């Protein structure tokens, strides 16, 4: 009976990790679905609670990193366009390439897009690989700590709780 309970907890923890793929179905699904699963099941075991916190913290971290990269890339692109001044904007009304007189602006825009786009793609790959790895570890009953994670929701193990009471 206890093995069935343990398997059930492992499956719930795995489901929390896999629920982060809900972002492909609903907006903010990578937060809403794992949070709901964790809220309903976190009191059942510390194992489920820890995996739920890990999944949510990782998704918050990846979203934060993606937003920062998008803001940096967008800022550089917009800043480059603005730095071209009115002369650049007048060229958009004509039939020729607007950056022909100042390729430095164009190369800055392209480089920024390539660098930030590549880093955002790399974060998406890390998200996919780590989420699958965490789900497999949860199914096997093992703990998993995501890389690059900011602990927005702190983890408290029983050892930490015991040491805080002394």
Q: How do the helices and strands line up, and which of them pair or pack?
A:
Elements: H1 2-19, H2 29-41, H3 46-83, H4 85-91, H5 103-139, H6 158-165
Helix pairs in contact: 1-2, 1-3, 1-5, 2-3, 3-5
Describe the structure.
With 166 residues, this protein is mainly α. The chain has 6 helices and no strands. Helix 1 (2-19) runs antiparallel to helix 2 and helix 2 packs antiparallel against helix 3 (46-83). The longest helix is centred in the middle third of the chain and has 38 residues, at 46-83. Mean pLDDT is 86; it is low at 159-166.
Percent in strands? under 5%
Largest sheet descriptor: none
The percent range for helix content is over 70%
CA-CA gap between termini: 36 Å
Which series of helices and strands comes N to C? HHHHHH
Count, helices: 6
Mean pLDDT: 86
The number of E-state strands comes to: 0
Molecular shape: rod-shaped
Low-confidence stretches: 159-166
* Helix/strand structural class: mainly alpha
Overall radius of gyration = 23 Å
Give structural attributes.
single chain, mainly alpha
Give a short synopsis of this structure.
With 166 residues, this protein is mostly helical. Helices cover 73% and strands 0% of the residues.
């Amino acid at each position: 009976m206890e093995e069935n309970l343990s398997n059930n907890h492992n499956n719930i923890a795995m489901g929390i990790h896999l629920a982060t793929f809900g972002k492909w179905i609903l907006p903010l699904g990578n937060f809403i679905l794992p949070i709901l699963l964790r809220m309903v099941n976190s009191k059942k075991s510390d194992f489920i609670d820890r995996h739920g916190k890990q999944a949510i913290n990782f998704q918050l971290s990846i979203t934060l990193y993606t937003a920062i990269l998008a803001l940096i890339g967008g800022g550089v692109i917009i800043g480059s366009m603005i730095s071209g001044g009115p002369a650049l904007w007048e060229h958009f009304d004509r039939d020729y390439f607007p950056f022909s007189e100042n390729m430095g602006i164009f190369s800055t825009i392209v480089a920024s897009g390539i660098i930030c786009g590549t880093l955002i793609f790399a974060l998406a790959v890390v998200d996919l690989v780590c989420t699958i790895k965490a789900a497999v570890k949860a199914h096997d009953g093992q703990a998993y700590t995501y890389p690059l994670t900011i602990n927005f929701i702190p983890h408290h193990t029983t050892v930490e709780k015991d040491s805080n009471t002394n």
